[in-house]
Specification:
The protein is an alpha/beta fold. The chain has 14 helices and twelve strands. The strands form two sheets. The protein has a six-stranded mixed β-sheet with strand order 5-4-3-2-1-12. A six-stranded mixed β-sheet has the order 6-7-8-9-10-11, covered by helices on one side. It starts with a helix and ends with a strand.
């Protein structure tokens, strides 16, 4: 005789309850890291916390912290394993630090143990989102691998990000995790024959309250399908053809003076190939220039770079390190068709231990953790403009020209930056990055997830040009429309891709 669903649920609860708590912690860490190893495994995020929740039942405060911290260690070790290619010591310290957020989360779950299930249903997700926000902003922030980012390929679900942001998706995923956990407990209790009628009635009410997360999920999917398949008003759309260049320059060659000619030749050849498709803009990645702008001895190199837009008649956006006096900036430069710098943006949000060493005056030894330079941050949200003279005739409200904002490297993990660029009038966003530090790992695809959310949140297209990938075009609904590929891969291959993006002025 086939066991009933209630019996199956009771059996699942029995298995989880009798499993070693540390084994459950490991299981949660693995389940939660799977979507960040392969975005197609997004389903595991919806119940990945359940083993940890079971492990925390009946535990002391200290035990709850330790078990949750251990889950964090497993999760972060499996998610940012690629950091070992930059710094082993820095990776270990970062994993141990980031796992503290899991530990404190476990304490909050412990504190809510006596609260009604319906209260925990909102309390626990709210605390998780608060901790994610804190992590993304404290000490310059590390907004990597948010729970919501696990869903970047689940397009219908993430459309709510234009209302609630990535944190809203994190909240929903966590709320379903809590509901899943609570429903297993309730269902397993209901099969017992020694329940009182009063307790049965209470369980029914609790069951009803736990339908709310699934109602929210249904609403999100309906809203998502509407956004994905609505028909735009074509008369309010502007088209723009853009080419992205993926140079695939090995990290060990990027600043080798003997390799400058090789680097420049590769970008020049790829750009001339892209120019045959007559794009309105060509984009090179972060720090693509093998020389420093502002250094006299590299003028010959810069002349060759600036000559490309003159030869092709197409504006060029490129990343370069710029030196002014003793300050170095990670910058984006727009070179117009006359071969002159039309505009420059200096990166606003620098990466700690990547572009500067925090607290180095107090702790000089920190400078030995990672081999980096020390950059100065920019001070303004610079918008780049493509004038009508550089474009074919435009339709709709954008007839006066198109404006865009540039996010350099990990700036696409900071939602406020993208939002401010769009508020100031950006019609689309560009992310130029390197990502060559991390070898052929999942780091570039984890980075891509953040860009998908920035496009959806602001309802603007986002174009990515990465040195080693992923270079691609993302529409306003988060669809990855086209990528630079080669040999069946989208990272660590040179190439170019040209695509038409649509700027919708109806949103």
């Amino acid at each position: 005789m086939k066991p009933s669903r209630a019996s199956q649920v009771s059996g699942l609860r029995s298995i989880l309850s009798n499993t070693n708590p540390f084994s459950l912690s490991i299981l949660s860490g693995i389940l939660l890291s799977l979507p960040f190893f392969d975005g197609r495994l997004w389903i595991f995020a919806w119940f990945g916390f359940a083993p940890l929740f079971f492990a925390l039942r009946g535990k002391s405060k200290g035990r709850a912290f330790l078990l949750s911290y251990f889950t964090g260690v497993i999760f972060w070790a499996g998610t940012i394993y690629w950091l070992i290619h930059v710094t082993l010591l820095g990776q270990v310290l970062l994993i141990l630090f980031l796992s503290l957020y899991f530990g404190f989360f476990g304490l909050f779950v412990f504190a809510s143990r006596q609260a009604p299930g319906a209260i925990r249903l909102f309390f626990i997700p709210s605390l998780w989102v608060f901790l994610e926000y804190l992590r993304a902003h404290l000490f310059s922030g590390f907004g990597w691998a948010l729970l919501g980012y696990s869903q970047y390929l689940n397009l219908p679900l993430i459309q709510i990000a234009d209302i609630f942001g990535a944190y809203g998706v994190s909240f929903l995923v966590m709320m379903v995790n809590v509901a899943f956990w609570e429903l297993i407990i309730i269902s397993s209790i209901k099969v017992s024959k020694c329940q009182s009628a009063k307790y049965q009635a209470s369980s029914i009410r609790r069951n009803f309250s736990f339908l709310f997360p699934f109602f929210c999920l249904l609403f999100s999917l309906v809203y998502g399908f509407y956004k994905l398949y609505r028909t735009p008003k074509h008369e309010l759309r502007t088209t723009l053809k853009i080419s992205v260049i993926q140079g695939n320059i090995p990290q060990e060659l990027k600043w080798d003076r003997g390799s400058q000619g090789l680097i420049l030749d590769r970008y020049a050849q790829l750009s001339q190939k892209a120019a045959l498709e007559k794009p309105d803009l060509i984009i090179w990645p972060e720090a693509a220039s093998p020389g420093l702008i502002g250094v006299t001895k590299d003028d010959w190199l810069l002349e060759h770079i600036f000559a490309l837009p003159k030869e092709t008649g197409i504006p060029l956006l490129l990343g370069s390190v710029v030196r002014e006096n003793k300050n170095y900036f990670n910058s984006a430069l727009l070179i117009d068709r006359q071969g002159k710098i039309a505009e420059r943006y200096d990166k606003l949000h620098l990466v700690p231990f990547g572009e500067y060493v925090p607290l180095k005056e107090l702790f000089p030894f920190l400078e030995t953790i990672v081999p980096i330079g020390d950059f100065t941050s920019g001070d303004s949200y610079t918008l780049f403009s493509l004038s009508p003279s550089a474009l074919p005739p435009l339709s709709g409200p954008a007839g006066a020209g198109v404006k865009f904002g540039v996010l350099i490297c990990f700036e696409d993990t900071v939602p406020e930056l993208s939002r401010n660029f769009v508020k100031k009038g950006a019609d689309f966003l560009v992310n130029i990055t390197n990502d060559g530090w991390f070898k052929e790992t999942k780091a570039p695809h984890q980075h891509l997830a953040a860009s998908v959310f920035r496009a959806v949140e602001n309802r603007v297209p986002l174009v990515r040009a990465a040195n080693t990938g992923v270079s691609c075009f993302i529409d306003a609904c988060g669809r990855i429309k086209a990528k630079v590929t080669g040999n069946g891969k989208d990272i660590f291959v040179p190439g170019t891709k040209t695509e038409t993006i649509f700027l919708e002025h109806m949103l």
